[in-house]
Amino acid sequence: SPLLHARGVAKTFGRTRALRDASLSIDAGEVVAISGPSGSGKSTLLHCLAEIVVPDEGEIHYGGTRVDELDEDARTRLRREAFGIVFQFGGLVPELTAEENVAVSLMFRGTDRAEASAAAREWLERVGVGDCAALRPGELSGGQAQRVAVARALATEPAVIFADEPTGALDSVTGEEVLGLLLGAARERGATVVLVTHDNRIAAYADREVVVRDGVVSDVPAVAR
Ligand code: ADP
Ligand code: ADP
To answer: Taking every annotated instance into account, which residue ranges of this chain make up the domain ABC transporter (predicted)?
Structure first.
């Protein structure tokens, strides 16, 4: 059975039907790109899969468990334990240093402060921004900030990494470097990656591409193809 599965998911914001009917199955270890035009519902689908947004209709299953009906605390726990998330503009906490931004995600999972700081420094080194450990997000370039965001998403060794236009704010060379780091580390560990992008060149790095149009996605489960 798939690791992550959405069935008939719909979500409306005010009068906007962001998602109308989204069904999608993702196997463990797959790298899946969600593509489609701007405003088609890609981010909303990602947010539903990542338990950030609760759908109005339909079901989300993770590891065989229905997760969209869990309460807020249980969904937060699932996100912290199993998911890593990279946003377009990093989503780093501006008041914290690069090292603290990474360490906090480990501390949420129970790692003590000293161990979390040491691991954070190692991850920053691995993604090429070891010398930025003491800087705050406002002092970093876009590419550096996105590397810190990648380190933060990888540090907890999540089962699933969600990335929403992770390279959208970067020039193409920097973007491909950052994506290479993210996918390289994910594939090394057999992690599952769900990547939202409107860029065909980025989608080409995925094992599979799923297209969202006007809030509709229908996808044949990988096992049936
Ligand atoms: P995409 O990621 O494909 O650009 P989104 O999922 O971000 O699409 O948005 C789909 C539609 O839903 C757009 O019209 C967007 O403006 C709207 N939308 C998304 N999130 C919200 C929100 N929190 N409040 C109101 N409208 C939203
Ligand atoms: P993306 O570039 O990934 O499509 P956006 O920049 O459209 O994302 O949206 C960023 C955030 O703002 C998301 O959390 C989304 O749900 C929210 N959002 C998007 N469109 C609207 C809107 N029309 N009104 C309110 N919030 C929105």
So the answer is: 4-225
